[in-house]
Write a structure and sequence with these properties.
CATH topology of the largest domain: Spore Coat Polysaccharide Biosynthesis Protein SpsA, Chain A
Number of strands: 11
Order of helices and strands: EHEEHEEHEEHHEEEHHEHHHHH
InterPro entries: Glyco_trans_2-like (IPR001173), Nucleotide-diphossugar_trans (IPR029044)
Protein name: Glycosyltransferase 2-like domain-containing protein
Number of domains: 2
Largest sheet: 9 strands, mixed
CATH superfamily of the largest domain: Spore Coat Polysaccharide Biosynthesis Protein SpsA, Chain A
Strand content: 15-25%
Oligomer: single chain
Radius of gyration: 21 Å
Length: 350
Amino acid sequence: MSTAPGRLTVDIVIVNWNAGHHLGNCLRSIARADQSVLHVGKVVVVDNASSDGSDWNLHVTGLPLRWVRNTENHGFARACNQGAALCDSEFLLFLNPDTELCPDTLRITGEALRTPGAAGFGIFGAHMVDEQGRPQVSCSRFPNPRIYVGRMTGLDRLAPALFPTHHMRPEEVPRSGPVDQVIGAFFLVRRPLFTELNGFDDGYFLYLEEVDFALRARRLSWPSYYIKEARVHHVGQVSSVQLGPWRHYLLLCSRTRYMFRHWPKYQAWLITALSLSVEPVARMVGAALRGQRVELRATLAVHREFLRWLRRDHELGPPSAPPAAARLRQTATSQRARPAHARNARKARQ
């Protein structure tokens, strides 16, 4: 497909896992977007074995759409790399299926990419907003021990100056500029940089793969830039919330991989020890105070599976689905659904 002279080109990669109607909304927003400055070469949707029908018979007029359908869930990072391997434009945009571009998002992004100052940056992000246009998390700090200790203990709320949060509050980034990391919901990368870094590290199944990528890019003198004027509607956690207790298990595994790859070993081991002691205790106390028995059992199961992963995988590779956590997820779901089923049964008998 030919492009007008002077227009930049971007290929978009979307990894889908049970995103429901949001995937269609995302694709239609791309088709509606102003591409006068930043032209979409192709859109690659990598479906990670969805079971909700979100990938069925979905066609968007005028969108150069290509599908990759995996027979099993390969994880987010690996699926992103699958999609990127089919792309050839000068920029790659990794876009979550629960996002919708505003009509001017691509135009504003393209205008920012054309400025002389953009030449020194390798990764670009946009301003996330909710349905009412209210600011959402768009940027994050690179994790360090204080961030994780604060998160485990609640000290990030009591003493945020000493224990800052990982995600930056919207008021902390009031304007466009350099940041440690832009969130992965809208993650625009120069293709040569993506190639140089060999893509995302597929040792991460879910979480922190974009943080790892941004840190490796920074070390090659390719920092990240936040474009405040480019707005993206982001629902958030549409897919990950379906994982139930397994979501925290995956976060623990990704967090541990990140620490041992990028921190001094003594710091990584310290936070790992706290992850197996202080953190589960704090989570169980909170669950007990709320009267959440299922959450109590889930916390025990998740941390037990995490310990097993640590013991069996000395390379800290991508985790497989933990059976205990999966069973607890099913238990929690059935317990929440039981009252509705009971009511339906009573109505049927009447």
